[in-house]
Amino acid sequence: MIPASVLSAKFEVRRQSTAPLPVQDRAAALGLGYRWIRPEDFDFLAALYRSTREAELDRTPWDETEKQAFIAMQFEAQHAHYQAHYPQALWLVVLRDKTPVGRFYLERWDSEHRIIDIAIIPEARGQGLGRAILLDLQDEAQAAAKPVSIHVEKANPAQTLYRRLGFRTQEDKGVYDLMRWDPPPIR
C-alpha cells in the first residue's frame, strides 16, 4: 500500500456514466461482477497498479520509500490522464464474490470499444478471469458490430492472451502496441 504521506494529488473520480455495465455472462459464471470506482478504492487501485510494475521496480536500485514515491506519482499521473482523455468511460472495480480483484476501464465509442485498462491482482491471475471479461466484451462488441482495441506494452505477458483471443497488432506505438479485435463478418 502507498502511504498517504507520499500522495501529492487528490484522487478524483469522474462522474459515473449512465452507460450500462459490460456484458457479464462468462465473468458472472466465475463469480465476477463490477461496480463503479469510488474515492475509497484509492489504496486498492494504487496497490493493483504497483502489482503491474513490480518487475520494473525489481530492476531499480531504489529503496522502498523511493519505490513508493515513484509508484504514487505514476499512478496519479496515469489516473489523471485516463480521466482527462476518456471522459465517458466506465471506471469499474472488478469484484469476485464482492471482493475487489481488479479494475476494468472501458470507453464505448461509436466506432469501437476501447479497453483503457484491465488488471487483476496477482493472487487471482491465471484463473481465467481476464479471459472471461475479454470474451464477454467481444460478445458485446460483436452484437454491436464494433471492434475492440487496447494499448498493450510489448513486454506485457497478457499479449499472449490477447493474441489467443484474436487480437492483432494494428499499430506499433513504440513501447506499446495498439491491438485490435474485429468481429467476424455477419453471414
**In percent terms, what proportion of residues is strand?**
25-35%
Q: For the record, what CATH class applies?
A: Alpha Beta
Poorly predicted runs are 1-9
H/E element order: HEHHHEEEHEHEE
Number of helical segments?
Answer: 6
> In one word, what is the shape?
globular
CATH architecture: 3-Layer(aba) Sandwich
CATH superfamily label: Gcn5-related N-acetyltransferase (GNAT)
Largest sheet: 7 strands, mixed
What's the structural domain tally? 1
Q: Fill in the CATH topology.
A: Aminopeptidase
Mean pLDDT: 90
> What class do helices, strands and sheet pairing give?
alpha+beta
Helix content: 25-40%
Radius of gyration: 17 Å
How many extended strands?
Answer: 7
Report, as a whole number of angstroms, the end-to-end distance: 51 Å
> Main sheet: which strands, in order across?
1-2-3-4-5-7-6
Name its key features.
seven-stranded mixed β-sheet, Aminopeptidase, 7 strands, alpha+beta, 187 residues
Mind explaining what this structure looks like?
- This protein is 34% helix and 26% strand.
- It has helices at 25-29, 42-51, 54-58, 64-85, 129-143, 158-164; strands at residues 32-36, 90-96, 99-108, 113-120, 148-153, 168-173, 176-181.
- A seven-stranded mixed β-sheet has the order 1-2-3-4-5-7-6, sandwiched between helices.
